[in-house]
Amino acid sequence: MSFLKIFSVVFFLLSPSVSSAADWTRFRGPDGAGKSSDTGLPETWDATTNIKWKTELPGPGASSPVTFGEKIYVTCFSGYTTADGDQSQLKLHLVALNRADGKIAWDTSFAANTPEQVYKGFVELHGYASGTPAVDATGIYTFFGRTGAIAFNHEGKELWRTSLGTSTHSFGSANSPIIYKDLVIINAGVESGSLVALDKKTGAQVWTQPGMNQSWNTPIVVTTPTGDELVVNTQGAIKAFDPAKGTPLWTCNAINDYICPSVIANDGIIYAIGGRSATAVAVKAGGRGDVTATHKLWQIPRGSNVPSLVFHEDHLYWVNDSGIAICVNAKDGAVLYQERLVPKPRRVYSSVVLVDGRIYATSRQTGAYVMPAKPEFKLLAHNAIADDNSVFNGSLVVSNGQFLTRSDKFLYCIGK
User: Fold this and answer.
1) Which helix (H) or strand (E) holds 7?
2) In the structure, how many helices (H) and strands (E) does the chain have?
3) Under CATH, domain 18-414 is a member of which superfamily?
4) Rounded to an integer, what distance in angstroms lies between the CA atom of residue 224 and that of residue 118?
5) Cα-based angle 139, 142, 147 (whole degrees, multiple of 5)
6) 82-105, pLDDT tens digit by residue?
């Protein structure tokens, strides 16, 4: 056996029992599913336990970080953080950090396109950096509402900028871009009421579709026997489009309210939750036209106003914005449990993450909760970082057998 082979075997045998999957390159990770195949992640942490590093950020934000190779990217805002402040001082940031030690590699900041909504009410709950970036080898793609979609290279240089509309809303802007082949696709429901695809190299508009009514969620791409489908949830209907051309494929009557949670898919079935009335819907993908009568599998009066859900072994799991953990049979919508988390969260905005057989849910101000990914409820851990009294809006990210989580003050790396 060669020296290289002997070294490889020894290295494998001596390596920690942690396995890691692909980079976390978009909102809710690979395929927008909110799950990872990584193992060996910690079940518990606090301000002094299992914190590998923490880095102070240049400003708050509700976005989640993304990872690509040895870098982490996250968005922030600064300069205007009180209702009586000066909006002309509002700056937006894309920050790159070294994956190994959390040190800031670069911070690219630029002026926002004002006027924005005043920093109060719902906007104060999440601010002006709510969209999670999407990243691949060609660059980092961001969306900052009325300031537009902006692409950067991996050194922080702006490549292009495209306006997707300048309308605003009292809820603010929240949607995240996704990358599909040579396109960057963004739900600009607030800014122009449209779903838009941009050329990844130039930012030029390739196609657009109207009808993104009351839609604050990020699309996903679902692969079916008849081709890829771009699926997004809107007020009153779940809609699917050809992601390459923007051609409408099908629509299904669903939740007649504003929609924040993103849909997920498993084995050709779309699962959607949302609305103040709390509704969950299952729809079979692959149809054409109005598929309400033919492809809707079930609908139940359970849901979530803001956080999204995950699928695991024929079950759906989520924690709603009021801090109630819910498990549903994915085949028929039967509710298997609904339990209030303790201590009771004041509010939950982030989406659950599934990893290593456990469900992790982060609240805004009362820590993170851990449950087994099983249809019987049990609270395994409640993890709070006591010396950070700011807000945690971003969802947990799984990377290299560790968690990344951001508050309005810090980015944390959590690992054994």
Assistant:
1) helix 3-14
2) 3, 34
3) YVTN repeat-like/Quinoprotein amine dehydrogenase (2.130.10.10)
4) 43
5) 135
6) 999 999 999 999 999 999 999 999
